Amino acid sequence: MTVRVVVVDDQPTIRLGLRMIVEHEDDMEVVGEAGTGTQAVQVVRAVRPDVVLMDVRMPDGNGIDAVAALVADPTLATRTIVLTTFHDEEYVVASLRAGADGFLLKDADPAELVAAIRRVHAGDSLLDPAVTRDVVARYVHLAEAADATRSRTAGPAARRVLDRVTPRERDVLLRVATGATNAEVAATLSLTEATVKSHVRSMLTKLGLSTRVQLVVAAYDAGLVRPAGDVAADAPGDAAAR
User: Fold this and answer.
1) Response regulatory domain: which residues (predicted)?
2) Would you say 51 and 35 are in contact if contact means Cβ atoms under 8 Å apart?
3) What angle (nearest 5°) sits at the alpha carbon of residue 115, between those of residues 205 and 229?
4) Looking at the domain covering 132-221, what would its CATH class be?
5) Which of 79, 169, 183, 187 is an S-S bond match for 101, by CB 3.0 to 4.6 Å?
6) Tens of pLDDT along 48-101?
């Protein structure tokens, strides 16, 4: 199967570089490009790619607005990788809320980019554990700071919502929150990959979420995982016998 990719960035040289990396792979092709957020939405709706590489800082509709528009379109099954830096904390938070499927640092090497596209296309979360922890920790810190001026209920509310998941789903969630792939979660919990995918889909439905990244954020908001990446003290352990 050929993975069809759309590249979005307002700098032509960056788009060219990304295109060259993608098309160097036998099983990938670039089927469209865009230089603004508005163009990105138009191109994606026209060519319906599997994966979009989306910059955030662009004129005429930024990448965050484009992600939100694509997620809101029920006819699309496109997955979105947001290209960002750790200096773009506010964009990271907004992209999480918009429904991006994952993040990739702009200085990632070609092998990391290709692996990220394959991973997202396969339905796994994008980021390696270290990056996942850093990005979500930034989200949690900024979200708490934003809520400091009013009565904060997001944490308790998230915990109440997460009470709806089963013990086994929570075991899966704890590992997804560290950036583990479906295969890695399956191996750790002695499950099949199909079962892990089923649990993830179930949790997304129960929590009213659209992406695995949002699921990770829910785990942090609920206190199941600490920003440093450690499991919270009151979080359940392995439940292999359940």
Assistant:
1) 4-121
2) no
3) 60
4) mainly alpha
5) 79
6) 999 999 998 888 878 889 999 998 898 998 999 988 765 566 676 677 778 888
With beta carbons less than 8 A apart as the criterion, state whether 78 and 48 touch: yes
∠ CA 186-167-172, nearest 5°, is: 30
Residues in the chain: 242
d(CA 100, CA 28): 21
CA 194 – CA 98 distance, rounded (Å):
27
Tokens coding 163: 């009470």
Q: Which residue ranges make up each domain of the chain?
A: 3-122, 132-221
> Could you tell me the pLDDT band of residue 25, with boundaries at 50, 70 and 90?
very high
Cα dihedral 80→128→106→37 (10° resolution): 20
- 152 vs 123: CA distance, rounded Å: 33
Residue 8, strand partner residues = 34, 54
Task: Assign 17 to helix, strand or coil.
Answer: helix
**What's the CATH number for 3-122?**
3.40.50.2300
